[in-house]
Specification:
Largest sheet: 2 strands, antiparallel
Distance between the termini: 25 Å
Shape: extended
Number of helices: 4
Radius of gyration: 17 Å
Length: 80
């Protein structure tokens, strides 16, 4: 299946789940009205350093990860 067909199917399924879509829309509006949008990092802006446990529970830092070269920092908002 081509990517566009998969994305279209995902969008259709997502929009059909009215309760989930309504809940996420309300949360997005709440965050926006609280000013989070203005404080969020912009594309290309450098993230401040932080430490976080890795998948094995060991502390790691953004600075250490950056030292290995270019780094993409992705925030995933799960639906579980």
């Amino acid at each position: 299946m081509q990517l566009q067909r998969k994305l279209d199917a995902f969008r259709t399924d997502f929009e059909a789940d009215v309760d989930r879509k309504t809940s996420l829309d309300k949360e997005a509006l709440r965050l926006k009205s609280a000013g989070f949008q203005e404080r969020a990092l912009k594309v290309g802006q450098r993230a401040p350093d932080f430490e976080i446990p890795d998948f094995e529970g060991n502390q790691d830092s953004l600075a250490r990860l950056r030292s290995g070269g270019p780094l993409a920092l992705i925030f995933f908002r799960g639906l579980w």
